[in-house]
Design a protein that fits this description.
The chain is mostly helical. The chain has 2 helices and no strands. The radius of gyration is 32 Å and the shape is rod-shaped.
Length: 57
């Protein structure tokens, strides 16, 4: 008869880092809010319209 082997436990540790996939986004880490704010600063500001002219009748 064969000798019995001791039972063993396989432990899976989560501390091993998995490979990080590159983002599939074409924008990457681009902050669109910052870009929009920068563009808004470059645009010419509209002239102030008197309150009377702004009311549409």
């Amino acid at each position: 008869m064969r000798a019995q082997s001791k039972p063993f436990i396989v432990e899976v540790k989560s501390s091993r880092r998995q490979e990080r996939r590159q983002s599939a986004s074409i924008w990457g880490n681009l902050d669109l809010a910052a870009v929009a704010e920068e563009i808004a600063e470059d645009l010419p500001q509209p002239a102030a319209v008197p309150a009377e002219a702004a009311v549409v009748r």
